[in-house]
Amino acid sequence: MSQASRRARRVLLRVAWVALLAGCEGYASALDPGGPQAARIKELTLFLFGVGAIVYLAVIGVLLYALRRAHVRNSVESGPAAERRMVRAVVGGVVVTFTIVMVTLFLNLETGRSLASFADPGALTITVTGQQWWWEVVYEDPNPSRRLTTANEIYVPVGTPIRLVTGSRDVIHSFWAPNLHGKIDLIPGYSGTTYFQADEEGVYRGRCAEFCGLQHARMDFRVIAVSPDRFAVWYEGQLRPARVPTTVEEVAGREIFLSRGCVLCHTIRGTPAGSRVGPDLTHLASRSRLAAGTLPNTRGHLAGWVLEAQGIKPGARMPPNQLAPDELRALLAYLESLR
Ligand code: CUA
Fold it and tell me: Could you tell me the pTM of the whole model?
């Protein structure tokens, strides 16, 4: 075996292995529903796939039959009998096509109706606003002091209906967590409402499903379904203002945050920083990813993001920052304390 073919075989094996692992992860699949809405959509998907497969096989079968007949007879039939057969075939084809279209139309409408029936006045309302290229997440509450803003990671209690209110601050995005619901377009100037529910605890991966500019591919989110008790603990923790720095380094880090450009875009509740251009950082350290799923939330990645976000996610609003090594260490210590 030549070196080139050995290399090709190695690449193929690696691709197959990655594909296998991706399949094993089991999430971000519309065929693995984690709630009632996704289950309805899966039923429709499988039905449409089945109908499509049958129609495809029937068309191929008829085509092969016609080719064989043409080959055998090698002549064009004519006369009243052939004419009648032709008319019957055309009328039969039209009737079958019309029936299939009507049945799929009916089932589409029926699925839409059944999804709409999940509307629940007692649902927990979460407003998700898409923007280039991250998700602002607001938990609504009639009491303003219990209204909570976060980003990119959406905690929900299992078995609880969620009323999802959507909007966009710039261009069209699409909110898609395939295990929980179909795609929901986020349109500027228009507020949409839909309902979803997670029946099992777990992390449901989601992403923007509408091309929205340079970093469309790095606009992910996670829906994290936890027990109602854990959700209540998480919610109370997130409602609290930012942790007050305790070490000298953290205090210096806060000063750097408040005296540099950071304050122009970000909110840290409990400090004078209150802008909503970028994500709310009050509990940044409690999130598992940075920059809408782009990076794991570790010190190294956070440092890279703070210093040179444009090298990681070109076009994002986060500008580069010049910091001396001790300033960077202090800022990171402060940001990492925001649990
Ligand atoms: Cu937002 Cu694609």
Answer: 0.83
- CA–centroid distance, residue 16 to ligand 1 (Å): 29
Query: Which residues, judged by CB distance below 6 Å to any ligand atom, belong to the binding site of ligand 1?
Result: 130, 133, 173, 208, 210-212, 216, 219
pLDDT tens, residue by residue, 15-56: 555 444 444 444 788 889 999 999 999 999 999 999 999 999
Q: Cα 193 from chain centroid?
A: 16
Fold observed for domain 124-239: Immunoglobulin-like (2.60.40)
CATH superfamily of the domain spanning 248-336: Cupredoxins -  blue copper proteins (2.60.40.420)
pLDDT digits (tens, 9 = 90+) for 286-314: 999 999 999 999 999 999 999 999 999 99
Instruction: State the distance from the centre of ligand 1 to the C-alpha of 52, rounded, in angstroms.
Output: 30
